[in-house]
Amino acid sequence: MVLTSDLHNDYYYSLQEAQIRKLRQSLESWKEIVLQTKSVFIWEKNWHPTALIGGSTITFTLLWLLDPSILTILSLFGLCFTICDYLIPSIATSLFKPEKWTARKDKELEELCTNVILYKAKLELTWASYYKMKITNRKMYFLVTVITLSSLAWIGCTFNNLFLAYVLVSFLLLLPGMEHNGIIAKWSNYAHNFISEFVKQAKTKVGQQKKDD
Predict the structure, then answer these.
(1) In this structure, are residues 18 and 146 in contact, taking their beta carbons and an 8 Å threshold?
(2) Minimal CA–CA distance to 165: which of 50, 40, 56, 55?
(3) What are phi and psi of 83, to 5 degrees?
(4) CB 96 within 8 A of CB 30
């Protein structure tokens, strides 16, 4: 059994290593741009989060004013991505000379690729755990699914779709910086302590009521 577990871990580790290498190869022509973009997303300078929110706000303001169809929006984003994919690597090659690529940058790119694959693995494990709950704890699976979908349906009926998209995109843009600067961990600890204290007080009240009865 231990040998089987070790083989499984080795296979999983080898699979992750292969994914990291594949991701790095795909980013080879973008590596300088990727590192510059990463510095913005993790807020290396104080104005970076403002720039992210400003860019998101301008984009969604234009979408609100122009009011294009979904097909037009998808086509425009696809067009922008195609043009950037064609032009930016050539521009980056002329702007950033190969001799300026240092060992520190190489290590930074390796860490970035590793973190992306690890986060992908965490999402897959989270989804697998949720799906496994359908077998191990059907009541909890049903309760979580119904509450989540009902909440999303209520939010979708209450707020404008474009506003919801703006909030979601802005949050995703700020998420790497919030995690890098410890904001996510701080909020998580606060929420955990709040829930623990709430449950503790509820148990105390229930115990007190039983004593009174």
Answers:
(1) no
(2) 56
(3) -65, -45
(4) no
Euclidean distance between the first and the last CA atom of the chain, given in angstroms as a whole number: 53
123-140 pLDDT tens trace: 888 888 888 888 888 888
Cα gap 76→78, rounded to integer Å: 5
Structure tokens at 40: 């913005």
Residues 85 and 171: their CA atoms lie apart, in Å, by: 25
Residues 172, 190: Cα–Cα separation, whole Å: 21
Which pLDDT tens digit goes with each residue over 16-31? 888 888 888 888 888 8
User: In whole angstroms, what is the distance from residue 103 CA to residue 99 CA?
Assistant: 11
CB atoms near residue 52 (< 10 Å): 20
